[in-house]
Amino acid sequence: MVSECLHTDISVSHGNWASAISDVERVCHRAALATFGACAEGKLTKVEVSILLSDDENLRILNKKYRGIDKPTNVLSFSNLDVNETVQFEAMPLLLGDIVIAYETTMSEAEQEGKKLADHLSHLVIHGILHLFGHDHENHAQATVMESLETSTLAELGISDPYIGTEPMDQDDGLGSS
Can you tell me the mean pLDDT for 145-156? Predict the structure, then answer.
């Protein structure tokens, strides 16, 4: 069972997350489980993902340090795996990596796009975990695959396709990874 294979360590360092979404940890865990189920292909025993719900200032600092971009972004993923490493799930538990999500940017995007904050947070968790599994959006082909995985995973959660009417994302979409 997927829920027994994935441990999500969720920390909230910015208080507005909990006041804006009363069950914020459940929202993150549910999105993480759905993504894990879509990517794991049944060969996992124990994997851990760390999710930090933070703020714009922390994301700006991390974005500048790891990507050379001195502005906040909505989500950053830090894989624990070497880029060229094949994911081996026999040596468990495996820490896939860390995801950090900024409250202010996420809230602003949700408002601008007319989305529920919990739905947009779910999307960012899914996006971040896909990066940890090695997916990217540096070119059109990669973006198409990644968006397809995002939209199908969101659909499993009952969340609408966030890309309807848009072009596939590219490396400058604001959805960050490191």
Answer: 94
